[in-house]
Amino acid sequence: MVSNNKADAPRIAILMEQNVEDVEFLIPYTAFRKAGASIKVLGSRMNEQYKGKRGQVTVEPNGTTTEANATEFDVVIIPGGMAPDRMRTNRKTVRFVQEAMAQGKLIAAVCHGPQVLIEGDLLRGKNATGFIAIKKDIQNAGANYIDEPLVVDGNLLTSRRPGDLPIFTSAILTRLGLSIPDTTIPDESDRNAGWWKLAQEWGGSSKGEIVDGINTAIAGERYALEVFDNYADRVSDRELSACFREICVHKRSNIQRLQERLAVLEETESFQAANSGALATLRSWFQSERDDLQILRRALGDLQTGVVDTYNLRNKFTDPATVAIFDDMEINIAQDEQRVADLYHDRAGTYRPKPPEPTTSASVKA
């Protein structure tokens, strides 16, 4: 894969399995290659072509974790996607990471990568992060989960998702004392730096892709704004109308933040007519008499769609600033979804028991 003739070049091991998150391999790999590091890709077996889950990466390993010796490397990187779930079932891979950790090597895991650390019982007492879907797994493994782009605890570096990759990769470069010609590496704590430029340079999202994603989100929020304005006008229940009006306020705020991000990128909104058909369908739906319960149910569906669409956008791009906006939007829309769901069940008279309180050892003894 990569050869480097400098005997003193930092030695990087990148673990690999099928269905890796493409950019979580590609961005570190490209950055370290540009920095002149010695890189080895380690899989579970030789003569295998490992493919990324999005079809952007195909990699043949330089070796396997069975034959590799942790003493040969300065850094072990564990990318995410579906790959770590297979890595953690390979006892040789888990042992390799355990040995590297014990030797004080730099261990860097992103997204689902901490699953391998969990399997090796390497997170107990640590500060760590990872993809939100394995937050509870990280906590159950004895770690303090911190929802930040980069969490550092001694020789352990962890990040959450593709949007954190430029910060994650830069943090490793800095600790190795590596530089890339004609490239300025910002301070890892500077959240306002132009991280997307580094990510683009290293194989991540292009500016055009980021701008398209922002415009897609704006179009979705503009559609939702018109929809909920209609809902607010048509329901007879004042509480429901007030709720929908508040949701409209949230939509305007989201649109403003997205427009401000476009301005930072020196771009402007590209108005999209993609939702014209959906609006026509809505107007047709309203031609028949609709009661408040029917409107509530439709509103709930709109919000559910918004949560899923924003979640997908959040995990798609490698620009930390844009992804942070999508993150806040998803939380905001999910809160509105729950509020509308509660109103729906209240009006429908549907009994929804609260989940039981967590059982603690103290309550069991009592």
Q: What would you note in describing this structure?
A:
With 366 residues, this protein is an alpha/beta fold. The chain has two domains: 11-201, 3-Layer(aba) Sandwich (Rossmann fold), CATH 3.40.50; 207-348, Ferritin, core subunit, four-helix bundle (Ferritin). The protein is built from 13 helices and eleven strands. It has helices at 22-34, 83-87, 91-102, 114-119, 135-140, 165-175, 195-201, 207-234, 238-264, 276-286, 292-314, 320-348, 361-365; strands spanning 11-15, 38-43, 50-51, 58-59, 63-64, 75-78, 106-110, 127-128, 144-145, 151-153, 156-159. α5 (135-140) links the parallel β8 (127-128) and β9. The longest helix is centred in the C-terminal third of the chain and has 29 residues, at 320-348. It is elongated, with a radius of gyration of 24 Å.
The portion of residues forming beta strands comes to 5-15%
Unreliable residue stretches = 1-5, 360-366
Number of helical segments? 13
Structural class: alpha/beta
Strand order of the largest sheet: 5-2-1-6-7-11-10
What is the CATH topology descriptor of the largest domain?
Answer: Rossmann fold
Number of domains: 2
Radius of gyration: 24 Å
Biggest sheet statistics: 7 strands, mixed
Total strand segments: 11
CATH superfamily of the largest domain: Class I glutamine amidotransferase (GATase) domain
CATH structural class of the largest domain = Alpha Beta
Chain-averaged pLDDT: 92
Tell the overall outline.
Answer: elongated
| CATH hierarchy: architecture of the largest domain | 3-Layer(aba) Sandwich
From the N-terminal CA to the C-terminal CA, the straight-line distance is: 61 Å
Query: Level of helix content?
Result: 40-55%
Order of helices and strands: EHEEEEEHHEHEHEEEHHHHHHHH
